[in-house]
Amino acid sequence: MEPAIRVNQLSKSYASGFKALQDIDLTIESGEIFALLGPNGAGKTTLISIICGLVNPTQGQVQVAGHDIVTEYRAARSKIGLVPQELTNEAFETVWATVSFSRGLFGCPPDPDHIERVLRSLTLWDKRNNKLITLSGGMKRRVLIAKALAHEPQILFLDEPTAGVDVELRREMWQVVRQLRETGVTVILTTHYIEEAEEMADRIGVIHRGEIVLVEDKHRLMRQLGRKQLSLHLPSPLQRIPPSLNGHQLELTEDGHELIYTYDVADASADECGGIATLLGELRDAGIHFTDLNTRQSSLEDIFVSLVRERQ
User: Fold this and answer.
1) What is the pLDDT of residues 97-147, one digit of tens each?
2) Which Pfam families match (predicted)?
3) In this structure, CATH architecture of domain 5-222
4) Which DSSP letter does residue 15 get?
5) 226-299 in CATH: which number?
6) If we measure between CA atoms, which residue out of 215, 235, 233 comes closest to residue 224?
């Protein structure tokens, strides 16, 4: 199957000399949810804007569903729906009118049944005759998604889709995105909310200072780069870690009341059935007792922060 997006050696420089993107290579498969993560100014929005035909690249090639964005602009753009970060709705238009108008912009014939399906899927049907100025911020963001879906695109870009909305609405939006993927729509989202990518994405891409530093399956990424920590709470403070335990990655907290054992999730020799059992036996032999223990696994946020810090 043809990839939804194929980017080859894409760069963007401005007259000031600033390089927003440098030699980007990226392939996004049809039907996946792809999350693009990066700090402010990393190049996320620039990359999306080039793919969507809103910004001209300095060099490189981009194909959308097999169509070149320069030589086959109209065909490429018709495959894309874009939900921008900013709320820019027409305040005094009705929901129905603004979504129907967006369909017409792409030269699509009127299709009230499709518009109804889109509005119902986004819980906007009861608001179809409301003017946009009367809607809440969350509802306005749903209207942006409805406008992007009006011309039946194969690929949907969501630039910070849940910025500024409350936690409950954010989770509702996540469900909407999952439903879109189930209908065959490829979804690419940029987000500052790491839990959003962790919850929804099939693959994660990390962009930093205009360069793609990593693209990986989400679960594989967390297995490869994730770590676990076992915290052992001691009944009395320990002055130092005995030399007999130097073979383990152990740290002692400043107050001496907690030992922290860190190990890689992907390291079979250090898992709960191996390394931890050995460690507990050696603690017992060293006369160290504990009153409680708990484990913590690295989150996607921990991994993201670590990757960015390494490239500062």
Assistant:
1) 999 999 999 989 999 999 999 999 888 999 999 999 999 878 888 898 899
2) ABC_tran (PF00005)
3) 3-Layer(aba) Sandwich (3.40)
4) T
5) 3.30.70
6) 215
